[in-house]
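Annex B. Sample input.
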Amino acid sequence: MREDPFATLAEGYESWYETPLGAFVVAEEEKALETLLPPGEDLLEVGAGTGYWLKRLPYARKVGLEPSSAMLQVGRRKVPEATWVEGQGEALPFPEKSFDVVLLFTVLEFVEDVGKTLSEARRVLKPGGSLLVGILEALSPWAALYRRLGEKGVLPWAQARFLTREDLQDLLGPPEAEREAVFLAPEAEPPFPDADQAGLRAGNRGALYLGRWR
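Annex B, continued. Sample output.
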């Protein structure tokens, strides 16, 4: 098993969201995610991290699975209303047909086996349930930055891989709905909405690609 790339990052993991650029980016991501949320009672987030999304999603029963014990500790403190489980996406410790919704939000970048993780996510979905997957689009300017940081040994990017939307669709088939968000470049200057529109006009792929499969 690989060393935990988040072990030293957990406590300050959400601090970037408090910067002006981070706040804009996460707000754009949240808007995209909200448009794809399906109905249901039971949500599993695979790779729930510190619980940022788990806290915000409107489901009656929320379960966060997280392989990093450091992230899990922070998540339990920040989102005590959720049920937290330490485990790997490739071997979900849940019975078949347990959840209405399974969310993987920028998690496939860090799992050891993408195909197995997606297969497990589908296994635990109830009939008619929805799989929501968000990836850091490999052909976006942000992925280029993260690759460069990874080459320099910066965690967690030194252990990341990046997928395109086409890679994801090869694994899962066409989504029933999809969105993308964050078209500005990582070095963009305010006003960020204008920079985002400029990135869209320039043909940038969104840093975040989201798809929903049923």
